[in-house]
Amino acid sequence: MSNTAPTHEEWDPKTYWVAPARNFRFSARLHLQHTLFQSTLGHLLAPQIQAAVADSAHLKVADLGCGNGVWLSDLDRELSSRGITAQLNGYDLNAANFPAAPFRPASMTLKTLDVLASSLPAEHLGAYDIVHARVFVSSIPNSDPTAFLSAARALLKPGGWLQWEESRADRHVVEAPPPDVGKSACETITGILKAGAEARGFRFEALLDGLGDHLERGGFGDVRVGARDTCMRDWKAWTENYLMVWEELASAFPPREVAPQAPMSREQWVQLFAGAVKEAEDGVVVHQGSITYVVGRKALG
Length: 301
Ligand SMILES: C[S@@+](CC[C@H](N)C(=O)[O-])C[C@H]1O[C@@H](n2cnc3c(N)ncnc32)[C@H](O)[C@@H]1O
Description:
Blueprint: H1 14-17, H2 24-41, H3 47-53, E1 58-64, H4 70-81, E2 85-92, E3 108-112, E4 128-134, H5 146-155, E5 156-167, E6 173-175, H6 184-199, H7 204-209, H8 211-217, E7 220-229, H9 235-248, H10 266-281, E8 285-287, E9 290-298
Helix pairs in contact: 2-9, 6-10, 9-10
The structure holds S-adenosylmethionine.
């Protein structure tokens, strides 16, 4: 991992998000993560939005950074069961994880789009009743959500709703079952990840604690922030989710023979990862404590 934070101009999300490793394992992890978000939050649409759209016959929804489209696919099921027809459009930099068109709900399209690009396609502007994003903080350069929120607002119709959900990327809770199970590898990895994120210019805590203020400054009204603690019954699955992330990260560290001076070599990372897997097998759990969500509404006029 580089120790230098990129400037806004230098940031190229494609170098990370469209890497060859973003393959079926990444998609499988997103399916697991979706299940965990749903288990924690208990809703696809936040209660304020559900109440606001309850009488709608048709909804147009955009999911920004949609991954494999699992949230939209689940939303299709929920809206159909309520008799609401919908047009569900997912946008992502990387099409590799999109299900094939014949196997998607008929209401759903998935398209390649950089949602942080300086201009969005004109036909999408002012088109959506709801814009959704989830687990997007590590795609926001320098943790400054101004461009992201302005894109979300531009896509919404007047009176449309933004819903944004994040797990607490700023913290990891590492817990060992008593009495004397070691957890040092998991704690070392979570410490390295925190320092690495800060070195790359991310300020997750400030961004997540300030979501409500960011939406208000970004021109949204009716802003509500909510949080739900992760459930103990899910902690083993959250741990497996993070182990998959950590395994993927091995390729971010250079092998010793390529960069002997690097503060962390691939060999050291793999050794730490093996230690973390052993600790998880011994019952250690890793989770992020809670999920935060924020909703806000674009002004009517
Ligand atoms: C952690 S994944 C979350 C996927 C999905 N939101 C979910 O919760 O299942 C982040 C996604 O954002 C996408 N992404 C990152 N930067 C993006 C950008 N500037 N425009 C569109 N998609 C982006 C990545 O390709 C990746 O699929």
